[in-house]
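Design a sequence for this backbone.
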């Protein structure tokens, strides 16, 4: 028996996903959590060579739709260990050095540590990752090597802050979108087309998982789900018009893609028909799995549903529950309809 899906259930989904370990290149643990969530609601589930988790739900009509939500989050990778046991690191994905200073980190094996700053580092606006190290409580290189290895990746310590309408986590990009896809699959009985829900890998370093998945699936239409910027916080630069609390964002363009106009119309018309609050998204920066899908083979019609958020690629990425629920509703409604050019 499928339990009734509620907003509280969907918030629990989001919290569990935000607490899972899953930096770029090491998405296995979050993949396992997602698989447990979606297995009862799909007809087939598998992983490919890139580690993408592909959940297939058969439709009643012809055609295939691919929905991509990336699992990976930004982090730090160990590049060397000095004689005193301090770890030197490189970024995994876009990460600002100042944003990680004096934060607590966690490795996949449970090792924890704190991010420190070289005593002779320059002013904060000039700090680079060369000035940063991780202290895991060791006094020698040999002792540190018992806990971590060169190439191990850590994330900022997982947490989920429930502020009522707003929610915050270091992994909101892009676990909020993964949760949207999970919840949409749970709400579908029989979709119009075959649905390929792809929880992709390595988006933060070049949309890599989505490229291979789209090539293998060759969908008739693609939808990415991701977080985006917003401008309702104090003195925000006018780089975008999206605002938290005003609904899901239907992407028109970003720095990497101009979404297929027919897909944008499909999304907007569906939102209007279903009474789902939405706003148009135009960004002059950033990119999502949309580009990877759209440029596959001879080209695939593609668009993106975005969740407006603030403090993206920081340790407190924040979204609004109303936008999150609107994104779920819009994706579920789209998957109940056939895409028509």
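Sequence:
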């Amino acid at each position: 028996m499928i339990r009734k899906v509620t907003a509280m259930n969907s918030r629990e989904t989001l919290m569990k996903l935000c607490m899972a370990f899953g930096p770029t290149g090491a998405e296995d643990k979050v993949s396992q959590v997602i698989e447990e969530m979606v297995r009862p609601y799909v007809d087939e589930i598998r992983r490919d060579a890139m580690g993408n988790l592909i959940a297939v739900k058969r439709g009643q009509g012809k055609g295939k739709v691919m929905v991509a939500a990336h699992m990976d989050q930004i982090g730090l990778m160990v590049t060397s260990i000095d004689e005193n046991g301090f770890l030197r690191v490189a970024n995994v994905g876009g990460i600002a050095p100042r944003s990680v200073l004096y934060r607590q980190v966690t490795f996949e094996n449970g090792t924890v540590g704190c991010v420190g700053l070289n005593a002779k580092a320059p002013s904060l606006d000039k700090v680079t990752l060369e000035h940063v190290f991780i202290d895991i409580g060791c006094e020698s290189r040999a002792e540190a090597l018992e806990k971590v290895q060169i190439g191990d990746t850590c994330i900022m310590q997982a947490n989920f802050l429930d502020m009522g309408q707003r929610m915050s986590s270091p992994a909101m990009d892009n676990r909020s979108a993964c949760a949207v896809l999970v919840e949409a699959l749970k709400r579908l009985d029989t979709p119009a087309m075959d649905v390929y829900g792809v929880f992709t890998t390595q988006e933060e370093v070049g949309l890599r998982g989505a490229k291979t998945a789209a090539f293998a699936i060759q969908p008739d239409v693609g939808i990415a789900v991701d977080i985006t910027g917003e401008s309702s916080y104090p003195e925000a630069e006018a780089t975008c018009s999206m605002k938290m609390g005003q609904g899901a964002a239907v992407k028109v363009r970003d720095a990497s893609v101009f979404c297929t106009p027919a897909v944008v119309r499909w999304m907007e018309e569906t939102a209007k028909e279903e009474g789902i609050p939405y706003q148009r998204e135009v960004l002059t920066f950033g990119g999502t799995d949309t580009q990877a899908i759209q440029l596959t083979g001879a080209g695939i019609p593609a668009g993106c549903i975005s969740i407006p958020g603030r403090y993206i690629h920081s340790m407190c990425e924040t979204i609004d529950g109303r936008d999150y629920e609107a994104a779920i509703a819009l994706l579920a409604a789209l998957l109940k309809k056939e895409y028509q050019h």
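The mean pLDDT is 94.
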